[in-house]
Amino acid sequence: MHLIKDNLAILLIMFFALGSCTFGASMPQQITSLNVGCNADDVLISDDIVELNGEESWTAKCDGKIYYCNYLPESDSGCYELKE
Q1: Is residue 13 part of a domain?
Q2: Phi and psi dihedrals of 20, rounded to 5?
Q3: Which regions of the chain are under pLDDT 50?
Q4: What is the tally of structural domains in the chain?
């Protein structure tokens, strides 16, 4: 019983520690942040489209740059800078 309580405590600590890193940031903000190096809270998302197959695409703005990003479930994600 003591082992179960210890494991539960560790899981709760990990959940809150990891959750605090991206608390309030949407999945597109998090993916954009990982791909372009901006803070997730600084990423502005527009034109977010989710297809029936789960593919998601959006436009992101960060640090004065505009990116086209996409996410393919169980595959890959990427962001590409759009030149004006």
Answers
A1: no
A2: -70, -20
A3: 5, 7-9, 11-20, 22
A4: 1
